[in-house]
Amino acid sequence: MNKKMVKNIGKIVRLTLLITLVIFVGSSSNVVEKNIDNINQNKVIDLSSMARKYQEDVENDLYASVDTFVGSLTGYVANCPLCSGYLACTNEYVVGLPAVYADVDYGNVRVVASSRNLPCGSIIRFDSPRIASQPIVAIVLDRGVLGNSIDLLTESYEDATVNIGRSTITYDVLRSGWTRGA
Fold first, then answer.
1. Cis link prior to 98 (omega < 30° from 0)?
2. Whole-angstrom Cα distance, residue 83 to residue 99?
3. In the CATH scheme, what architecture does the domain 63-175 have?
4. Cβ distance 94 to 85 under 8 Å?
5. Closest CA to 87 of 136, 153, 149, 138
6. Closest to 136 (Cα-Cα) out of 101, 97, 171
7. For residue 83, which phi and psi values (nearest 5 degrees)?
8. Distance, CA of 171 to CA of 34 (rounded, Å)
9. Ordered per-residue pLDDT tens for the chain, 182 residues
10. DSSP conformational letter for 178
């Protein structure tokens, strides 16, 4: 026998062993069939309406952030030396106590002064553990600060200087101006 024949016989033997092994393994394995009833097989999923519903939920979420800024937080009182006694965004609302405003959408919120970067009526949310354990929601009803700074209307001079002081905060704009989606 020549080398070529020996090589071919070797290939045939290996192939035969491989086929025998596959047949043996295939016949000896325990195949378990499970029938699963699919009760949803006749239901249609409308992804477009699901996407529209999700978008509506996002648009209706009062606490979804429209924008985020970093600025300084300070406090001020109603009778500060440069204050007129009225809020710059509405002459009907006299600066006074308590330092909250009853907003139609957000309920009772704190009052802040901002620069013209935020339109009057904008709602913001920020964390300040020095002031409150929960996030503070406030409305822009006054002016008098620069850039992205926020000045929180407080009940007393001591509250403004001692409890608030000056700190850097990140705040979310929840509503830009008086109406949502504006």
1. yes
2. 15
3. Beta Barrel (2.40)
4. yes
5. 153
6. 171
7. -90, 145
8. 55
9. 677 676 777 788 788 877 877 776 666 555 555 666 666 666 666 777 777 776 666 556 788 899 999 999 999 887 776 666 678 887 666 666 668 888 988 999 999 999 999 999 999 999 998 888 999 999 999 988 999 999 999 888 888 888 899 999 999 999 999 876 54
10. S
Question: Cα–Cα distance between 110 and 63 in angstroms, integer?
Answer: 15
> Secondary structure of the chain: what % helix, strand, coil (to 5)?
25, 30, 45
Strand ranges (E), 64-116: 67-77, 86-87, 90-94, 100-103, 107-113
Give me the residue spans of the domains in the chain.
Answer: 63-175
Positive or negative, the CA dihedral 8, 10, 15, 20 is positive
Q: How far is the C-alpha of 133 from the C-alpha of 129, rounded, in Å? A: 5
CA–CA separation, 97 and 91 (whole Å): 16
**76, 74, 62, 67: which is closest to 137 by C-alpha?**
62
